[in-house]
User: Which sequence fits this backbone?
């Protein structure tokens, strides 16, 4: 589903973050060292090839809530934005740190003149953030930030599972 807010299309779909060839940047649910790993980071680094880790390494470590931007290497996008989500129950305040991931990623996309950016559900995998709570933070933050964006016109949430998609769609539908 899609909604337009302040001239920005916000959409949720089921898919793989490494298969979003029509967006300028994909966001990586990164680890602090900006290395490959499991989940989203593993999939992005595998698809991008070793050049991604080589470019990212000097930018590490990053802290929860921070984001950095690199080229996309073997991926069919222009950039990868690497955001480190909070570990649920460990990094506090987790809601604020998760919102920072979305705010900082959108700011980087906008500063780089990008039109479109795709996010996975940051922190909802090995970092343990309950998906309903994370979806609420993610969608609320994107909607809040939409009025500040000059360049970004499409924000896509790419959800791996049907129930994750359902959670995001319910919140996007219900948000003012
Ligand atoms: P984190 O460490 O921030 O929790 P993960 O990569 O473990 O990040 O997972 C974040 C979310 O992304 C989880 O909901 C997971 O199911 C989902 N996910 C895993 N692989 C992909 C992929 N290739 N594309 C989109 N979403 C994915």
Assistant:
């Amino acid at each position: 589903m899609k909604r337009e807010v302040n001239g920005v299309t916000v959409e949720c779909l089921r898919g793989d973050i490494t298969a979003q060839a029509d967006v300028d940047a994909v966001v990586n649910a990164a680890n602090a060292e900006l290395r490959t790993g499991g989940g989203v980071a593993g999939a992005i680094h595998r698809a991008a090839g070793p050049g991604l880790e080589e470019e990212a390494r000097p930018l590490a470590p990053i802290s929860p809530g921070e984001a950095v931007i690199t080229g996309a290497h073997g991926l069919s996008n222009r950039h990868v934005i690497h955001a480190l989500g909070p570990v649920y129950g460990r990094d506090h305040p987790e809601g604020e740190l998760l919102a920072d991931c979305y705010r900082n990623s959108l700011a980087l996309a906008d500063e780089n003149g990008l039109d479109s950016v795709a996010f996975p559900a940051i922190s909802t995998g090995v970092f343990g953030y309950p998906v309903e709570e994370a979806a609420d933070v993610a969608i609320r933050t994107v909607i809040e930030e939409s009025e500040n964006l000059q360049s970004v016109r499409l924000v896509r949430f790419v959800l791996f599972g049907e129930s994750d998609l359902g959670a995001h769609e319910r919140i996007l539908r219900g948000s003012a």
Summary: The chain has one domain: 2-174. Residues 34 and 56 are 6 Å apart (CA to CA). The first helix runs from residue 39 to 48.
